[in-house]
């Protein structure tokens, strides 16, 4: 008999399937502390949660029987995926079930912030008949900027078009063709900041998206702009928003999510009359809760019964027969993907993977998944080798596999080329017996570097004195260079410099490096 623990008020109708299953018993609990959960979790084969329960490493460590954590929703930022993967616990989510609910809340927030509905309600029920204060604005003919054009962002765009809004979208995976298809113009974060009357965010919270709207963006905005966040707290810098409201740039904001949930009683949003707040209600509709609970219950049953399942966010089911040959290359593949993903700008249209040497003739599909995962993980939350190919396809990213004849120089060689509309970049690596993974080529330049830690990739013209300038600037700012490689084809031509540093290079130092006139481009990478 499988035991399933259902937390966070997941819909009863949605988990009917589990209640009806003869081989399953279900316990429902809510509001358990981490320690309370740790005390009971060893009894359970499956755990189902929404966003409230934080499934920490300590909980996973105590969960000796746990086979699966089911997230009845999209974001898995409350689940320690690393710890789950390490323990072979599958994490699944329900990515589609709450798209419309969250999109509709976003629209409700946009209309509320345009017409001050909550503020007007408060006064009216308080006995005031105030028809002067609440003169709003129309959505028609306004510019809506959307950061994150995935499932929810695209649905918001569709509805905005019907309201007569002009929509500008920003998403590294939004190609011009797809944007045109859904009637959205492409823009950068700064262009959106400068042009939009309303800005809404629909990205996951990642290193890239944390504070993607912050003081510099508020400084670009038009007076009277309105800001909505129904995605994740932290995508918009909360304090910078409060300042922008005080300065008169932002006319109003509507937030469903916060950097800390629930926010502290003295959080500045809670007593600001221009900010509308809701308690993370995006997915809270009867329909969405049934949808996500049904989706997760079905998947949990499949996993408990060892049947095939689809929405895993962490699980690497590699067939044993290919495992032995390919496993040594998995880290190399993922790092090459991460490297090229972090150094290429613009919407990726194609990933071309070439295998040579002893990898020729092997079914390299599982390895390709690691590479694609590496490429996508820079922009998407919850990418793993199970869902990487599916995510690439759903974002119109073509994955091409080539098996070339044996490499002349290396016994094995993996090359990854990323193509965007105007550009293409290549990285190649090999697995050296006794030395591990090495990057051996970047674009046309031969190099030899271990793909680990903090890297700086600098392109420049090959002139005397540049290495010294870079070294001095980093040294003066306490960034210690661990290794350095210079790659060039001809003396005095274009060249690259690849440095590994003992710590991350601070943003302001990167900025100073970029200002050195001899340097063409500076990319910071973390592998
Ligand atoms: N308030 C609530 O209750 C809910 C919040 N959410 C949150 O909404 C967010 C979006 O959900 P979905 O649309 O279903 O996910 P999705 O994965 O379909 O879309 C996210 C999009 O963000 C894009 N993106 C990633 N990094 C980016 C960057 N640096 N700049 C611009 N775009 C970037 C991705 O390419 C992707 O297209 C998630 O974070 C999710 O957790 C989802 C459901 C309910
Ligand atoms: O699905 C998501 O990402 C959400 O944020 C919804 O969270 P919830 O299930 O309502 O706690």
UniProtKB/TrEMBL annotation:
This is D-3-phosphoglycerate dehydrogenase. One of its GO terms (molecular function) is phosphoglycerate dehydrogenase activity. It catalyses: (2R)-3-phosphoglycerate + NAD(+) = 3-phosphooxypyruvate + NADH + H(+); (R)-2-hydroxyglutarate + NAD(+) = 2-oxoglutarate + NADH + H(+). Residues 455-527 form the ACT domain. Belongs to the D-isomer specific 2-hydroxyacid dehydrogenase family. Catalyzes the reversible oxidation of 3-phospho-D-glycerate to 3-phosphonooxypyruvate, the first step of the phosphorylated L-serine biosynthesis pathway. Also catalyzes the reversible oxidation of 2-hydroxyglutarate to 2-oxoglutarate. Pathway: Amino-acid biosynthesis; L-serine biosynthesis; L-serine from 3-phospho-D-glycerate: step 1/3. Keywords: Amino-acid biosynthesis, NAD, Oxidoreductase, Serine biosynthesis. It holds the Pfam family PGDH_inter. One of its GO terms (biological process) is L-serine biosynthetic process. InterPro entries: ACT-like_dom_sf, ACT_dom, ASB_dom_sf, D-2-hydroxyacid_DH, D-isomer_2_OHA_DH_cat_dom, D-isomer_DH_CS, D-isomer_DH_CS1, D-isomer_DH_NAD-bd. Its EC number is 1.1.1.95. SUPFAM superfamilies: ACT-like (SSF55021), Formate/glycerate dehydrogenase catalytic domain-like (SSF52283), NAD(P)-binding Rossmann-fold domains (SSF51735), Serine metabolism enzymes domain (SSF143548).
């Amino acid at each position: 008999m499988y035991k399933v623990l259902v937390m966070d008020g997941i819909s009863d109708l949605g988990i009917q399937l589990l209640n009806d299953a003869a081989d399953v018993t279900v316990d429902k609990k809510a509001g358990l502390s981490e320690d309370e959960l740790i005390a009971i979790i060893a009894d359970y084969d499956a755990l189902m949660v929404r966003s409230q329960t934080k499934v920490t490493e300590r909980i996973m460590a105590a969960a000796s029987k746990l086979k699966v954590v089911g997230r009845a929703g999209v974001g898995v930022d409350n689940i320690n995926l690393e710890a789950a993967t390490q323990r072979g616990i599958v994490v699944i989510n329900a990515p589609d079930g709450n798209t419309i609910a969250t999109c509709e809340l976003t629209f409700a927030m946009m209309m509320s912030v345009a017409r001050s509905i909550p503020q007007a309600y408060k006064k009216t029920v308080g006995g005031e008949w105030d028809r002067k204060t609440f003169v709003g604005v129309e959505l028609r003919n306004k510019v809506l900027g959307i950061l994150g054009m995935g499932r929810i962002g695209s649905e918001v765009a569709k509805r905005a078009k019907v309201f007569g809004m002009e929509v500008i979208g920003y998403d590294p995976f939004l190609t011009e063709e797809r944007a045109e298809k859904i009637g959205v113009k492409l823009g950068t974060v700064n262009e959106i900041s400068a042009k939009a009357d309303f800005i809404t965010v629909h990205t996951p919270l990642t290193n890239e998206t944390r504070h993607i709207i912050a003081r510099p963006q508020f400084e670009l905005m038009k007076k009277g702009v309105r800001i909505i966040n129904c995605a994740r707290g932290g995508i918009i810098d909360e304090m910078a928003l409060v300042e922008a409201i005080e300065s008169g740039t932002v006319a109003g904001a509507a937030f469903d999510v916060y950097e800390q949930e629930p926010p502290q009683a003295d959080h500045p949003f809670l007593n600001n009359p221009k900010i509308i707040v809701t308690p993370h209600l995006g997915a809270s509709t009867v329909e969405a809760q049934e949808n996500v609970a049904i989706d997760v219950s079905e998947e949990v049953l499949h996993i408990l019964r060892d049947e095939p399942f689809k929405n895993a966010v962490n699980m690497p089911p590699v067939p044993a027969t290919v495992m032995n040959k390919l496993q040594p290359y998995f880290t190399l593949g993922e790092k090459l993907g991460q490297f090229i993903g972090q150094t290429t700008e613009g919407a990726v249209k194609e990933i071309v993977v070439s295998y040579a040497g002893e990898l020729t003739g092997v079914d390299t599909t599982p390895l390709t998944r690691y590479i694609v995962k590496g490429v996508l993980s820079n922009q998407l939350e919850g990418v793993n080798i199970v869902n990487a190919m599916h995510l690439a396809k759903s974002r119109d990213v073509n994955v091409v596999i080539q098996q070339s004849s044996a490499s002349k120089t290396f016994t094995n060689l993996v090359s990854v080329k990323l193509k965007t509309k105007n550009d293409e970049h290549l990285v190649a690596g090999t697995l050296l017996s006794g030395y591990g993974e090495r990057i051996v080529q970047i674009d046309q330049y031969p190099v030899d570097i271990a793909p680990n830690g903090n890297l700086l990739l600098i392109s420049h013209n090959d002139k005397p004195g540049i290495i010294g300038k870079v070294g001095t600037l980093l040294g003066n700012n306490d960034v210690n260079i661990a290794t350095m490689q210079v790659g060039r084809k001809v003396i005095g031509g274009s060249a690259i410099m690849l440095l590994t540093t003992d710590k991350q290079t601070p943003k302001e130092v990167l900025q100073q490096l970029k200002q050195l006139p001899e340097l063409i481009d500076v990319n910071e990478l973390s592998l």
